[in-house]
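Please fill in the sequence for the structure shown.

STRUCTURE ENCODING:
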């Protein structure tokens, strides 16, 4: 895909005059803002919202972004909330969500601030139910054609390849290295440094 110009890799991103804060640096990278700008939407989420401007009121047929892991990256935040889904495996996502639906269409929503929040939660719940079935079906249909190393990153890339082969052709797949295992200084030296 890379050789065909259908895949991009963003690597080595930085910013001028770093204050050496991992947390602020990560926020800057994920929001694509200047160091003096605070934003809570991510650059990917803002882009994806242009593809689904009515999100989350009107949901796309399939999720716009998939992150392999346990928490959704700030990069996927849009003005309408998190615009992607996250899971470790399609099967786990399906099993987590399966059977959580109810006949909420028949229940009225009060015209209050709490009613608006309830409507939003119902929309997200319906999306999770719908998306879990789609993701499971695409994962079941997909195959891997190579042998992957036994590592956290390789296992996540294996799931991405399986989903793509199964027909889940998303604009964005995001994988992260578990526990930022490349950043080891917090565990070095104990109390003596």
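FILLED IN BY: designer on duty
SEQUENCE:
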């Amino acid at each position: 895909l890379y050789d065909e110009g259908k895949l991009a890799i963003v690597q080595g991103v930085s910013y001028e005059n770093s204050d050496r804060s991992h947390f602020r640096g990560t926020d800057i990278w994920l929001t694509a803002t200047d160091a003096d700008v605070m934003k809570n939407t991510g650059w990917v989420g803002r882009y994806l919202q242009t593809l689904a401007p009515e999100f989350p009121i009107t949901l796309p047929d399939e999720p716009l972004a998939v992150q392999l892991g346990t928490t959704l990256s700030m990069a996927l935040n849009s003005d309408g909330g998190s615009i992607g889904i996250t899971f470790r495996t399609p099967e786990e996502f399906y099993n987590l969500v399966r059977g959580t639906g109810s006949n909420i269409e028949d229940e009225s929503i009060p015209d209050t601030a709490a009613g608006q929040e309830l409507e939003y939660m119902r929309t997200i719940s319906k999306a999770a139910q719908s998306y879990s079935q789609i993701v499971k079906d695409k994962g079941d249909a997909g195959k891997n054609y190579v042998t992957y190393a036994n590592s956290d990153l390789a296992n996540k890339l294996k799931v991405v390849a399986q989903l793509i082969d199964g027909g889940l052709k998303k604009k964005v797949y995001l994988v992260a290295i578990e526990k930022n295992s490349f950043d080891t200084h917090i565990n070095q030296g104990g109390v003596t440094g």
